[in-house]
Amino acid sequence: MAHAHPTGGRRAFGARTVSRATVLTLLLAPAVPAVAAGTTAQASAPGGTARSAAMAPATDRTGVPTAADPFAADPAPADPQAAAPSAKDSAAADPSPGGTAAPAPPAGGLGPPGTATGGATGGAAARAAAPPGAAARPGPPGRAVATVATGGGPLTTRGGPSTVDGARGSLTEGARVTVVCQVYGQRVAGTRGRSPYWNRLADGRYVADAYLRWRPARPTVPWCGATGGPATATVTGTSAAVRRGPGTDRARVGTVARGAGLAVRCQMWGERVTGPGGASNAWNRLGAGRYVSDALVTWRPSRPTLPWCGQAPPTVPAATAEEFIARMAGPARQSMRKYRVPASVTIAQAILESGWGRSGLARRDHNFFGIKCFGTPGAHALGCRSYATSECGRGKCWRTTATFRAYRDAAGSLADHGHFLVVNPRYRPAFKHTGDANRFAREIHKAGYATSPTYATNLIGIMKRYDLYRFDRR
Predict the structure, then answer these.
(1) CB atoms inside a 10 Å sphere around CB 14
(2) What is the pLDDT of residue 25?
(3) 152: burial class by Cβ within 10 Å (0-12, 13-18, 19+)?
């Protein structure tokens, strides 16, 4: 397993020394899901400058990460008025299990499809159900009418699919809207129920589906492609077999003719197939027990960023340090019980390597340690997603794409991190000190986890400042 790491320093893998990623400041942009076998280069900060201290960012008043010392204060929120629930979309947001909606926008939202947004996955974990509310058939919304239903107040429209994306005006109760496509975003609780789906309007703004009333019923809404408009999936080649599961060894349950449209609910990682669309491990789930290889599909005009089946919705950043720590505490303790990595060390590393959960990779795909795929998501992730990033080596840096693991939720990411440490022989000495978190941190640093000379010192400083040792008590 190889990692791309988001904060300063360099990490040695075998005989090579490679740059560590700065996912935290990178603005990673999702490219295409789950096709490449990965590269051997490690992502790094733009410009190739490795920071000697792995610092979490603070947030200035415009929501831009700054390189301030995280020990100086809790993560600073931006202008409180920008996130105040003046419209219904932010009144009852529920971003993920274990956390609550941030009352102020930290380092920016997920952004619309196709924009640089910060921020990569099968295994047994992929045997999951489709996200609730996914489209059942392809095609535009048609004659169904969508109106705003807030219960009286205005509905804030956003620049992307979350309540921390910038406000772009508002809509009044009962206003009719023209929906173009949908995006899988922050889960919001509204007057029409709880939903992670956000509708892109004809003018480019986004509204939470939880506050729209559809009549006579919610139609099939196509996914938004990378260019922002609706994306359609059609079969290329002669035809496509529909399988009961994500592999050619699964029973054939039907056939889709060439040129036929598909309504894709989500994707699963499975057998690698080569077809007219290239080679891919991704399989498109059409419904219960109905899968078509993505290698047999063409997306036009551009590919959407689809959720992996069973994946929790993207999150919004925590408002305070303690809120983020609370989100990580449960999964870190679960990982400690199974892999014996002190929970305090795991939480501190998640803080450093995801920038308090603000990186797009952490928010969208729940990857808190920048773990790359290199051809496989392993046993803990759902699939792999390609992100635009910067890579460095031999004194040079360049823009490229790399595939990162996408997890069901934070628990999968933290479990994968613990598994990596326990199965890698170089870290064996650290496991003689599982009862001493500070010594454990020094040992994994000494073994080459990171070559920043202050990496262990930074971890220990965070553990002390926030008393993360409390989570090591069984």
Answers:
(1) 9
(2) 28
(3) exposed
